[in-house]
Amino acid sequence: MAASTAAASLRLSFPLLSPLAASSSTTLRFPIHRRWARPSLAVAAFKKISEVSPLSIPQEPTQPLADEDTLPAKPGVYSVYDPSGELQFIGISRNVRASVEGHRRKVPAELCASVKVAIADEETPDKTALTNAWKSWMEEHIEATGKAPPGNVAGNYTWVGAPQRPQDLRLTPGRHVQLTVPLEQLIDRLVKENKVVAFIKGSRSAPQCGFSQRVVGILEGHGVDFVTVDVLDEEHNPGLRETLKSYSNWPTFPQIFVGGELVGGCDILSSMAEKGELAALFQN
Ligand SMILES: *[C@@H]1O[C@H](CO)[C@@H](O)[C@H](O)[C@H]1NC(C)=O
To answer: Which of 70, 102, 118, 200 is the most buried (most CB within 10 A)?
Structure first.
């Protein structure tokens, strides 16, 4: 049945480790019917969800969380439950106590009544061990209930917040400001200060031509950390098109710079992507 095939591959939001409550997230495909890689020794160092007793989360902000022994400021995995005991979210954190405190402040009380926590045996478990523990908690929950925690579904920003999208860079604050350095120098500084720069027509979220759209798609598809500059924005980037053409000695847009060097336009980037050459380009 088509529906069950689609359901077999849910898109889940995977809270990456970050110093405080995970603020960045990425998505990962989670094939329900396939087992995760053999349980490693690292996973064995964490308790299973079913082996952990829940701690209640006091709703009153003035009431302290459970003591540090019960809810330590240490790396681990945790699951959060609503007042009826339905699991809402499975998280991973370098500091479980801080993450739970963060949820208590930001997430509605009707989603956040109790928590189960598993801390690693070692003082500083490696990232893989934590990730494996998170995966095995997800698997345990999905096997028991047939569904993913609602808060872990991709695009749900209740628990981890939306990923920060870098804005489009602007060369000037606006036409009203008199430039004290030549535009050429601003471009030079911009491509040298940012590892990957795409000069495109339109903004990153709304490219104004098919080639620019393709470039943004390829870079995002490769998980590249890049900034964009809108060559059509005459208010903030006046004269950019003409100056950039002579700076790069390249007549068309979009133009992609890596490490201060022009790579080329859409065709070059596309063909490098097809040949699998992009990973190497963005590596260094
Ligand atoms: C996100 O997950 C929570 C459960 O933790 C759920 O109540 C909420 O409706 C979800 N939001 C969206 C937009 O799906």
So the answer is: 200
- What global pTM score does this model have? 0.56
| pLDDT, tens digit (0-9, with 9 covering 90-100), for 186-214 | 999 999 999 999 999 999 989 999 999 99
Please answer whether residues 200 and 257 qualify as being in contact, where contact means their C-beta atoms are separated by less than 8 angstroms: no
Task: Write the burial class of residue 145 (CB in 10 Å: 0-12 exposed, 13-18 middle, 19+ buried).
Answer: exposed
Per-residue model confidence as pLDDT tens digits over 235-281: 999 999 999 999 999 999 999 999 999 999 999 999 999 999 998 88
The DSSP letter of residue 18 is -
* Exposure class string for 244-280: b at 16+ Cβ within 10 A, else e: beebbeeeebbbbbbeeebbbbbeebbebbeeeebee
Asked whether 266 and 211 are in contact (CB, 8 A), the reply is yes
- Residue 157 alpha carbon to ligand 1 centre in Å: 8
Cβ of 89 closer than 6 Å to ligand 1, yes or no, is yes
Phi then psi for residue 53, to 5 deg, are: -90, 145
